[in-house]
Amino acid sequence: MIYQILDKVDGLLRIERARAHCDIPCGVYDPIIAQIAALTVVRMMDLMADVEKKHPDKDVAYHNSLARYVTVKEEHAIKVKDEIRTIWGDYMKAEHIEKFPELHGLVHKIMQLASKTKQTSDREAGLQLVEAVNQFAEIFWKTKNVATKRAKAPYLPNLELVYPVL
Amino acid sequence: MLKLLRVAGDSMAPDFQEGDFVLVSKIPFLFRRLRPGDVIVFRHPNYGTLIKTVAALGPAPDEVLVTGIAPASVDSRKLGAIPLRAITGKVIWHARRVGPGRGR
């Protein structure tokens, strides 16, 4: 009641704004960062699986390469979690949750899968992570009424990604 | 001593949403110091009128450090310390947005 009155008053008198300013222009959200990060996780798992063939005697170069792949895998799994949490927490509003009731469960699944890809080198978990993030991207673009398509990424590991049709 | 303002932007979400109204007053902190957690409105030379949460008092005696609630919010790392004289007031009343509203 009071809100409606104030809203009308604002329409007439234009009440001063107190800006709750964001660091990035609010409204700039895109799941592609999380999607690419998820692909990177799988790519690192593939490189980890290959590294032994390249360095059969497990010399210092082997350990160096393996350590780098694990580090990048770790970073990108964390990036998936950060990006998805930000879109889910900051962009998604009550009306989106109402329209896509599966969203909370899907985000939780992504968090769990991303953790699994950190703890293990299980490629199947990596593939599931890519697919879950793709499903999140589909919902995200639906909230903006943007159509999507699925296409194979033109770089290794050549997995299918959801892209907006703009 | 009282001022009605409307929130624009999402850095204080979910506590304060775009389109909410807030009533601010200087009276409460004439009698006692601001505390971390208080929500204040202040003027900033680069950003204009802002609404933020007090993160900490100091570093100078007449300054406070501020932060938002949302992760992407700007805070005192960018804004610097806020001098007390720049503070319009503390939020003493809050009307949450109902329905779509006029928003921004």
Q: What number is the mean pLDDT of chain B?
A: 84
Superfamily at the CATH H level of chain B? Umud Fragment, subunit A
Mind telling me the CATH superfamily name of chain A? Nickel-containing superoxide dismutase
Q: Low-confidence stretches of chain B at least 5 residues in length (pLDDT < 50)? A: none
Could you give the order of strands across the largest sheet of chain A?
2-3
Report the major sheet of chain A. Answer: 2 strands, antiparallel
Oligomer: heterodimer
Give an account of the 3D structure.
The complex is a heterodimer of chains A (166) and B (104). With 166 residues, chain A is mostly helical. Chain A is elongated and about 80 Å long. In chain A, strand 2 and strand 3 (160-164) form a beta hairpin. Chain A has helices at 2-13, 32-54, 60-91, 94-99, 103-119, 123-143; strands spanning 17-19, 148-152, 160-164. In chain A, helix 3 runs antiparallel to helix 5. Chain A has one domain (29-164): Nickel-containing superoxide dismutase (Four Helix Bundle (Hemerythrin (Met), subunit A), Up-down Bundle), CATH 1.20.120. Chain B is mainly β and 104 residues long. Chain B has a single domain (2-95), classed as Umud Fragment, subunit A (Ribbon). Helix content of chain B is 8%, strand content 42%. A 7-stranded antiparallel sheet of chain B has the order 1-2-7-3-4-5-6, with no helix packed on it. In chain B, strand 3 and strand 4 form a beta hairpin. The radius of gyration of chain B is 13 Å and the shape is globular. The A-B interface holds A 2-4, 6-7, 10-11, 15-24, 26, 86, 89-90 and B 3-13, 16, 18, 21-22, 24, 41, 47-52, 68, 70-74, 78, 95-98, 101-102.
Structure in a nutshell:
Chain A is built from 6 helices and 3 strands; from the N terminus they run αβαααααββ. Chain A is mostly helical.
